[in-house]
Amino acid sequence: MQAPKVFFQSIAVESKAIKIAFYRPKTKELQLSYTSGTDYMYEEVPEHVFEGLRSAESKGTFLHDHILGRYKYERLTE
Description:
Elements: E1 9-12, E2 18-24, E3 29-34, E4 39-42, H1 47-55, H2 59-66, E5 73-75
Antiparallel strand pairs: 1-2, 2-3, 3-4, 4-5
Helix pairs in contact: 1-2
């Protein structure tokens, strides 16, 4: 029996800055919804970076150290 296809993975995040994270393994897109109400899509993010975010004790520190300034992004909401 084949494993089901995964179109995206999501995690609810306990963070002061991030509300929820969505990751699309096929396209390597990471979408972050911030507690401020804005959403950003980060491109070409390797799955191990998403897994690092998932397991990080401090999501904000991980975000600043491993995502911001390293990947192209697009703001999705105003």
